[in-house]
Design goal:
2 helices, about 10% helix, single chain, about 50% strand, mainly beta, five-stranded antiparallel beta sheet
Length: about 350
């Protein structure tokens, strides 16, 4: 994933990476994958810090009074110790869209929302009792009735002015691989080219299928939406997929699964592809609107995809027919010439 730094911020000579967001709710997200009760840093190189900076805001927290703890910030050290710091309403964070009737004061504004100037994220610097080498940071929402949006977290060493921004996200796992004029992140949750799911839904209408896939609860690693085929709801179980050959017109895979499932190949579904499972022709289903899928029974299977477009077969037939016509025509011409040469001339 490639991003710029337009919406990142420097506050008091500390850099905050605001590319990602962690949305925390003590109700554990009410079934949404993008909302959790807590979040842990995904990428931390051990770093000696004296403080941690947090850019955040609250949502639906207008009744929370000043000084109420809304989250715990836990910093684990390489020695196995832990610092527990509190994020408080009205002091370290506040309601994002601030107005009349809010029970806590506005904390220090760190950034105005680019698309909504009346909204703000707030900045807090929480100090450790002593410099510590930090290996992990975890933020946990407390049951206050509001929702906490963590926009950025940075470890700070106030002794030399250095700092290290961290990645905290509830919408996926990422690792930064480059930071310069632009930032490059590796998406750690990316699915492999071929994988097995044990749960499917059948939705023939593409618009409805795309709508279902856009739902936050849809997890493509667990469920496939089929345009046709068999709906299954087997328990998730270990499976293995090994690609033994891959070329533009042929793919071979070895697949082992212990429960019924669908092999999903993240290549475009297109007429002309044919599949065989253990040598037996098997229909290819269209999965997640664009991809290919095969139903597999429990066991170990040899799977082969081959591209044999009908136009190629038709064209080959036409070419052979035309060639036969040319040969037959040439044959008739030769016979006619032979007859002309051997026929007796009239006197």
């Amino acid at each position: 994933m490639l991003t710029d730094k337009v919406h990142d911020v420097w506050i008091d000579d500390v850099f905050y990476d605001l590319t990602f967001e962690a949305i925390l709710d003590a109700q554990e997200g009410e079934g949404s994958r993008s909302v959790e009760a807590d979040v842990t840093t995904q990428q931390v190189e051990p770093y000696i810090a004296t403080a941690v900076g947090v850019v955040s805001y609250l949502q639906g927290a207008s009744d929370i009074v000043d000084g109420t703890p809304v989250a715990e910030v836990r910093l684990a050290t390489v020695e196995g110790n832990e610092h527990i710091l509190l994020l408080r309403a009205g002091q370290d964070t506040a309601e994002g869209v601030y107005g009349e009737g809010i029970a806590h004061p506005q904390a220090r504004v760190g950034q105005r929302w680019p698309d909504q100037p009346e909204g703000a994220a707030y900045v807090a610097r929480l100090h450790l009792e002593a410099p510590s080498e930090i290996a992990q940071v975890k933020v946990t929402a407390l049951p206050t009735g509001g929702r906490l949006h963590v926009r950025g977290v940075t470890l700070i060493d106030e002794r030399d002015g250095t700092n290290v921004p961290l990645i905290m996200s509830t919408s996926g796992r990422f690792r930064q691989t480059h930071s310069g004029d632009v930032k490059v992140y590796e998406v750690l949750d990316a699915l492999p080219r071929a994988y097995v799911v044990h749960h499917t839904r059948r939705i023939a209408d593409d618009a409805q299928a795309i709508e279902a896939m856009a739902d936050a609860s849809f997890d493509p690693a667990q469920t496939a939406i089929l345009a046709s085929g068999t709906e299954i709801a087997a328990p998730a179980s270990p499976s293995s997929v090994t690609v033994t050959h891959y070329s533009p017109q042929a793919i071979r895979l070895d697949v082992t699964l212990s429960d019924p499932g669908y092999l999903v190949v993240s290549d475009t579904w297109y007429p002309g592809w044919e599949a065989r499972v253990d040598g037996v022709s098997t229909p290819i289903e269209r999965a997640n609107v664009h991809f290919r899928a095969l139903y597999l029974s429990p066991g170990t299977h040899a799977v082969q995809f081959t591209y044999q477009p009908r136009l190629y077969s038709t064209g080959l037939g036409i070419s052979l027919f035309s060639l036969a016509g040319v040969v037959w025509g040439a044959h008739l011409m030769v016979l006619r010439r032979l007859r002309t040469k051997t026929s007796p001339r009239s006197s």
